[in-house]
Amino acid sequence: MITGKNQIGNQKSATGSVTFKTFNPKLNIENEHTFNEASAEEVDQAAKLANKAFKTFRNTSGKQRAAFLNAIADEILNLDEELINTYCSETGLPEGRAKGERGRTVGQLRSFAALVENENWREPSIDEAIPDRQPMPKSDIRKFLIPIGPIAVFGASNFPLAYSTAGGDTASALAAGCPVIVKSHPMHAGTGELVATAINNAAEKTGMPNGVFSNLNSKGIEVGVQLVQHPKVKGVGFTGSIKGGRALYDLAAKRPEPIPVFAEMGSINPVIVTENALQSRGSELATTYAGSITLGTGQFCTNPGLLLGIEGEALTAFTKELGEKVVATEPQCMLHPNIKKGYTTKRDLVSEQSGLQVVAEYYSEVAENYAPPKIATVKGADFLQNPKLHEEVFGPFSLVVQCADESQLLQIIESLEGQLTGTIIAEESDYANLGDLVDTLRERVGRIIFNGVPTGVEVCESMTHGGPYPASSDSRFTAVGINAIRRWIRPFSYQDFPAALLPDALK
Amino acid sequence: MITGKNQIGNQKSATGSVTFKTFNPKLNIENEHTFNEASAEEVDQAAKLANKAFKTFRNTSGKQRAAFLNAIADEILNLDEELINTYCSETGLPEGRAKGERGRTVGQLRSFAALVENENWREPSIDEAIPDRQPMPKSDIRKFLIPIGPIAVFGASNFPLAYSTAGGDTASALAAGCPVIVKSHPMHAGTGELVATAINNAAEKTGMPNGVFSNLNSKGIEVGVQLVQHPKVKGVGFTGSIKGGRALYDLAAKRPEPIPVFAEMGSINPVIVTENALQSRGSELATTYAGSITLGTGQFCTNPGLLLGIEGEALTAFTKELGEKVVATEPQCMLHPNIKKGYTTKRDLVSEQSGLQVVAEYYSEVAENYAPPKIATVKGADFLQNPKLHEEVFGPFSLVVQCADESQLLQIIESLEGQLTGTIIAEESDYANLGDLVDTLRERVGRIIFNGVPTGVEVCESMTHGGPYPASSDSRFTAVGINAIRRWIRPFSYQDFPAALLPDALK
After folding, report:
1. CA distances (Å), B253 to each of A264, B248, B288, B481, in order?
2. Are A379 and A309 in contact (CB under 8 A)?
3. Side-chain half-sphere exposure of B224, counting CA atoms within 13 A
4. What is the ipTM of this complex?
5. Whole-angstrom distance, CA of residue A37 vs CA of residue A47
6. Contacts of residue A429, Cβ cutoff 8 Å, sequence gap at least 6
7. A364: exposed, middle or buried (C-beta count within 10 Å: 0-12, 13-18, 19+)?
8. Most B CBs within 10 Å: which of A490, A496, A497, A506, as the mutation test of the B interface?
9. Are the C-beta atoms of B163 and B240 separated by less than 8 Å?
10. Which of A444, A492, A502, A504 is best to mutate for the B interface (most B CBs within 10 A)?
């Protein structure tokens, strides 16, 4: 049941005076429930309670936390239709997507549960003593990984389940033994409250300390700012815009005790298509990419916003066909009127840049909050000298860049900001000449996809979801896959400890 | 041969007009050679050359880099007496220490060479495709670790070899495939130049690209500031003061593209002694700790600056004896007049705080730049309310805190800033009651030593040299041991790559 209240540990709370509602973009009306933004006192309570819970939670066994994570997954599934309906009413996304994302969320929780079922994730390492070593005896030193403390997680607008309340950041932090305080995303506060209730039910059922999880509603930026500055908060997980992520990063860096911020931010996910590939299967590629560009109304962080090829007939033909197919796609609803407004503004800003040519645009009237897709093209030289063309347009828009030659193509890749993904579309006959391209592209991205599309992030150990700034604020970590736990841990060493005082994992 | 010039890759260079000399603190005179501070152009040249070298260096095999690291170790040993004599003349440290530190430096280089001899350090991970998975086929995804780019390393005043030019930061960065630009420490610029020459000789002999290593002299802060702000520099390693480390951290965080800074900064390394231990072996402990406090003139980052016990006769007797033994230790020379001045100022500032009592102080006259050791004591309540008493006094000074009871002891530990180490001195009869102490102390430190001294950092896989801020700027990493390589790498994934284009480690 949605109450609109915050959850400070297992208590519902609403002491603040600021309220807001979520919005149904498909119906273009406000949803029913009224949410109370967390007050400064509530933020402080949640952080202090998380710190108190940390004293117990950090010493739970991996098996206990695995039971907790699996119970969260079960409780989320128990929410059933109420969750799916709330999700759809707060996002304009279809039921199939809601269920798919729920499946991914539950899968992530269970994969972190499996990870911490035993203590190998702590990377236990033992260097035994050598008492008779010359010139000095060697001590017995044993190391493993321990949690860093309460983590603030910022829900993402575009993934209300998989990157929000019980998403990858929360699952990995809880798995590590870090309590979590979620700053709920205002666009899907109802979905957030339902999932938060599921987490606290699971915490109670599996005997976790009160305060291991809190959920704070927010309309403006105050709750997030206070959380990141709170001395009891020791790390931050964020998925969203460059502007938002950088603001949190800056706040955290200015603290008396700076804390790590893992922010997964913008990306235009360049796709490089060779002439051979265009010649042999340009039409098929146009179909595939029209689908990838418009998937989820272009609201994926791995949406292909930039296609690069060598100028010529093959690229011109492909671009024309891509435009036709993108425009033939029925426009879909965006997450929120603000997101739609951002899409229109950004797309129009890019469109008016010098040298840019519109390839195809959906001109018929669309319903309120629906996004007409668009494809544009530009010469490599114009792209190179105009940083505005390098910026993300969040939505179903893509820019095809006609590079003068191989060397300009590499130069363009080197000029790009850091990206989550890069994609190479090539034929077997190209392989021998792709060395420089792969090497150059690898420096700018976290993952290269070969002959595929960047949309769709597999949750597995080998996945990297992150990349050089601003794809993420710290490229040394991934936000997806079991190694995401490394964001919230630190190494700790025991020297010459008696067995009785060592943790089991190091005995 | 010492020329006083900078080394931009394999070229000696001295275009700047600022010069300086190093200082022999034992003789209290300037050393012979004149050093040229790097000019802004030279800093820029070094960074650009490092970026160029990175394109080749990142693709060298682990075996090639291992040969390079081993060659550096060999070249350092070849410097023989010239290095040892220069080291001693620039630090006032004895020959035995110089040779010991050289051994450690060479050992670190060889341990990173051994680490990258094969590609396991890249943590290769393979998730194979499942083409018939429902509802969607699973892609083939393979991940490993790649270097992040050129690293700026700041030499430490107190370890001219092991934490400077070819120290742990440099060795781990080169092992990962990151070129290194060292900002040489002005107090031992001659030692730095000799080691830099060794590194460049090794680079040439093993076929490494020019620019894989540069060494820049600096007198003031300009060279370091420019390095940390240079767009081609992608990470920073630093060992030194909180003030210096924090300044670099702040600069790096404010860049358009923020970069990671791993700064190992101050620590007072609390030692907790139980009443039982004091009663059964107080005298022996006083001897051991008098040695640890005065070792290397108290100039180790793990120097025990704070001893905590429960007030009473046993602690009083121990403190008295500790004072006597510390004062009986012959005063030793500090690294530099500025270090001596810092010691005197900080020690006197702490000494004048309310409630502080001097236990013992070496009052006889000492030679210029020699440090008279001192022990003081204070009640727990006074310590708790005065943050000035929590600050590091770099040198042979220690403060004994008389805690009212167990609960105040834990409160004091919780009130401390992050530390590199904590130490527990206890008897077997104490073990059953140490749970809370270990748990509380663990939250504030990177390593706990049991019944030993914190001075002496074993170089092994299980070592953690780092800890919560300000012991280090990012507690998620260690500066010592093979895992120090993780500071300079990021995960990267290949999706659906043809075998021909995969790196060998992922085939």
Report:
1. 16, 9, 42, 26
2. no
3. 25
4. 0.97
5. 16
6. A276
7. exposed
8. A490
9. no
10. A492
Q: CA of A193: how far to CAs of A49, A214, A425, A504, B373, in Å?
A: 19, 10, 42, 37, 60
**Among all chains, which residue has been given the structure tokens 């495709």?**
B129
Strand partners, A152: A181, A236
Q: Do A105 and A167 meet the contact criterion of CB atoms below 8 Å apart?
A: yes
Helix, strand, or coil (residue B78): helix
Residues 6+ away with beta carbon under 8 Å from B143: A461, A462, A463, A464, B123, B124, B125, B491, B492, B493, B494, B506
Q: Give B299→chain A minimum CA distance, Å.
A: 20
What residue of A is the nearest CA neighbor of B430? A501
CB contact under 8 A, B476 and A260: yes
Question: Which tokens sit at B186?
Answer: 């002005």
With CA atoms as reference, report the closest residue to B349 among B374, B384, B318.
Answer: B374
Cα of first residue to Cα of last residue in chain A, in angstroms, is 46
Q: Taking the mean position of all CA atoms in its chain, how far away is CA A504? A: 34
Tens of pLDDT, residue by residue over A26-64, are 999 999 999 999 999 999 999 999 999 999 999 999 999
Q: Which residue of B254, B456, B462 is in closest CB contact with A143?
A: B462
Identify all chain A residues contacting B434, using CB atoms and an 8 Å cutoff: 501
SS3 B492: strand
B466–A127: do the CB atoms touch at under 8 Å?
Answer: no
HSE of A477 in the Cβ direction (CA atoms, 13 Å)?
A: 23
pLDDT digits (tens, 9 = 90+) for A186-219: 999 999 999 999 999 999 999 999 999 999 999 9
B228: closest CA among B261, B270, B195?
B261
State the Cα–Cα distance between residues A474 and B490, nearest whole angstrom.
9
Ordered DSSP codes for B275-333: HHHHHHHHHHHHHHHHHHHHGGGG-STT---EEEEESSHHHHHHHHHHHHHHHHSPPEE
Closest to B33 in 3D by CA, of B3, B64, B11:
B3
Nearest residue to B400 (alpha-carbon basis) of B326, B305, B329: B305
Q: Which of B300, B164, B261, B236 is nearest to B473 (CA)?
A: B261
Token code pair at residue A60: 């739970």
* Block mean pLDDT (10 aa), chain B, length 507: 97 97 97 98 98 98 98 98 98 96 97 97 97 93 98 96 97 98 98 98 98 97 98 98 97 98 95 98 97 94 97 98 95 96 96 95 90 97 97 96 98 98 98 97 98 93 97 97 97 97 95
Q: How far apart are the first and last CA of chain B?
A: 46
CB A468 within 8 A of CB A475: yes
User: Residue type for A56, please?
Assistant: T
The answer to whether the CB atoms of A249 and B258 lie below 8 A apart is yes
What is the rounded distance in angstroms from the CA atom of residue A469 to the CA atom of residue A488? Answer: 19
What is the widest separation between alpha-carbon atoms in chain B? 84
How big is chain B, counted in residues?
507
Strands, sheet with A151-154, edge to edge from the N-terminal-most edge strand? A11-13, A6-8, A213-216, A180-183, A151-154, A235-239, A261-264
pLDDT in tens, A97-150: 999 999 999 999 999 999 999 999 999 999 999 999 988 899 999 999 999 999
Name the minimum distance, in Å, from the CA of B250 to any CA of chain A: 7
DSSP state of A418: P
Give the model's confidence band at A362: pLDDT under 50 very low, under 70 low, under 90 confident, else very high. Answer: confident
| Residue B408 DSSP class | H
Indicate if the alpha-carbon torsion angle B501, B505, B506, B507 is positive or negative: positive
